[in-house]
Amino acid sequence: MSQLGLNPPTTRTWRDIPQPVAPRIRTLGREGKKRLAMAVGNIIGLVLVLGAAGWGVYEVVTLWETNPARITAPTKGVPIRDYAVRTDGVLDKAWVKRTLDLPKKASLMEADLVDLKHRLEESGQVSKAVIERRFPDILVVTLQERTPVARVVARIGDASPVSFMVARDGMVYSGFGYNVEMVDALPFIDGVKLVREGAGFERIEGMDTVADLLGTAQVSAPALYHTFKIVSLARFGLDRTLSVKSSEVEAITFGSSQDGFYRQLARLDYIMEETRRQNTAGQLKSVNLAIGDKQVPVSFFDTTPPDGREPSRSSASALRPASPSGTALFALPSRNSSPSKRDF
Amino acid sequence: MISRTKFIGAVEIGTSKVSVLIGELTQGRTLHIIGVGECQSRGVIKGAVSDFKAASEATHSALMAAEQSAGTRIDEVYLAQTGGHLEGFYNEASVNVSAADNLVGSPDIDTVCRLAKAKNLPEGRMVVHHLRRPFRLDGRSVPDPENLVGQRLEAGYWTVHGHEGKIADNIHVIRGFNVRVAELILSSLASGAILASSEDKQNGVLVIDVGAGTTDFVLYRDGCAQLTGVVPVGGVHLTNDLSLGLRVTEGQAEKLKLRFGRGTVATKDRAEKVWLNGDFAIGDRQFPRHTIEQITAARTAELFEVVRKKLGAAFSPEKTAAGVILTGGTAKLPGIEEAAARVFGVQARLGEAPGWVAENLRDPGFSSVLGLLQYGLSSRADLAAPRSRTRAPGWMSKLFATA
């Protein structure tokens, strides 16, 4: 029995024999070398696989950042599930789907965006279309639509006449989705010859002037605007005048170069109001607002009473025509009562 | 803590054969034996590696066969250790219980254990096992003294040590297969672990593993291994004696031993003869059966005498109530139990593997490798604390070691 110190000598045990992780090759047997080689092979394989995976991820990320369009293969098979339509007008998703006319299982990546854009813009109602892919399966369509300012009736071949919309830029197109009341309120365009161009028509010259006139009338004199039925561009090419047929006046001539439409509309309003107030001169037949700003040539329908009495003269000193159906000059009030200050 | 499925190889590099079993250890609890490999041994004399290359080739063949049979690769190895170089000694130490109230604490136990194990070994020797005997607290034997009251705590260890080079050779043979040796277990302890029950160990039992080149033994008492030893004599010596006595080759002697050898002489008729081969071919000849039995019985008795002599005073028939359990390849010799009973003065029997062991593994030659798995697993928890110096290998090390 021994009572030794508290720090006795340590004895060596078999666990002190080193068993290195990588044993000396010379002590390895044939099978041991094979196993070691397999172990090393495993590690090399693991490193290679991890390296390849990392490189692949890096390549995909780089490609995505630089040119995502090249990554077509991975999503080639994903069909378009839905359309996201954004528009500033009246067109809807159904119209877009119908117009694009894509096969049911068309894949998102296979869709030719340029072609689809052309299809939408061909309709005429769309002035600009932007189409994007939203991965994985949504086609995003953003539309900028034309606004119709007038209508035009045309006959194509032997078919019955069809009404088309005309936009400010002269584009003639079949309108879709517009409010019927809004369409009915649009005046017709006359005095133009529609020329076919592809599936549509050539643009109508002078529509920007027509749009200015109608726009000004719609905003400043809606009562007058609602009487406008037909706007003729027959003389626009000659003297840049527009002839409007309204429900009250057969021909109102607007000049586009001399004076602004706002002043002309104001004068027209004054003339019509004075005419209605006096109620003696009969119904106006024509008003030519394109000439001068103090005296406006007007003509009346023959409305002379059967007793032969002349209607009383107004203080507005409008001139009576020499003959009941002749042309007279309607004198406008002096400049200090500027039409720009009067209320329509 | 083992937290996954491990494939453990139990390897015994014997003098006549190399045996390998593969156990699938699940969650550190359930063990299934899933692979067996066996190969004739080469390059091993009396349990020690004498030709590294030959021994490696034989061992690796057995390992490969076991891996093929299991369909998996071994993660680590429990290796059996035997050989005449193994020796043991008993050392004990005592400490005064440090607590004022004389309550034995964990530090007291650690200190006395450390002191009992701390004995310098001669140069070139290293410890294989420290086998602790029951603690004694104020002279009474206690299995666990913690929280008991006493003044003097004593602990004793049977330390098994061996030649550093020979142990290292054994380990390097396994390392040559690029597998780590996780446990090095004395062959006798392995056999005892599988063959002796807890009751046997408590009552006292001597387990003798008679191999080809060595005979390993362990004496249990009070539930603990008291003493172990290795005698560098085994079945090969019986063959050699027959070869010399009958003037036949070793191969012929081995055949005669296997067919007619006995642990005790049973043949009364001295004139009864047996044929060497029995095929009546040229060279076939007759030998007196009585002579064969005499030679093998004499050597067997001598072997047991040597074992008894090595046990010395530690063995007494009175304190070995459970008798002698015999195992190992040579234990298949008929009449060997009688020989053992005569020498030791107690009943002797052939060891039987537990019921869960498959039929093909119930041969006495497999008891060591079976015991390796059982002993290794049960001792791992006990060894965990002292093994804190050895770092658990990282995943990279495991990849190298097990791939």
What is the 3D shape of chain A?
Answer: rod-shaped
Strand content of chain A: 15-25%
Question: What's the Cα radius of gyration of chain B?
Answer: 23 Å
CATH topology of the largest domain in chain B: Nucleotidyltransferase, domain 5
**Helix/sheet category of chain A:** alpha+beta
Largest interface, C-beta within 8 A: A-B, 32 and 51 residues
- Name the helix and strand elements of chain A from N-terminus to C-terminus, one letter apiece: HEHHEEEEEHEEEHHEHEEHEEE
**Fraction of residues in helix of chain B:** 25-40%
Main sheet of chain B? 5 strands, mixed
> Could you state the oligomeric state of the chains shown?
heterodimer
Question: Can you describe this structure?
Answer:
The complex is a heterodimer of chains A (344) and B (403). By secondary structure, chain A is α+β, with helices and mostly antiparallel strands. Chain A has two domains: 76-145, Ubiquitin-like (UB roll), CATH 3.10.20; 148-303 and 311-331, Cell division protein FtsQ/DivIB (Rossmann fold). Chain A is built from eight helices and 15 strands. Chain A has a seven-stranded mixed sheet. Chain A has a three-stranded mixed sheet with strand order 1-3-2, covered by helices on one side. In chain A, strands 4-5-6 form a three-stranded antiparallel sheet. In chain A, strand 4 and strand 5 (162-167) form a beta hairpin. Residues 1-5, 308-324 and 337-343 of chain A have low confidence and may be disordered. By secondary structure, chain B is α+β, with helices and mostly antiparallel strands. Chain B folds into three domains: 6-84 and 179-233 and 305-402, Nucleotidyltransferase, domain 5 (2-Layer Sandwich); 87-159, Dna Ligase, domain 1; 235-302, Alpha-Beta Complex (Actin, Chain A, domain 4). In chain B, 34% of the residues lie in helices and 29% in strands. The relative contact order of chain B is 0.14. The chains are: A alpha+beta (344), B alpha+beta (403). Chains A and B meet through helix 1 of A and helix 1, strand 7, helix 2, strand 8 and strand 11 of B.
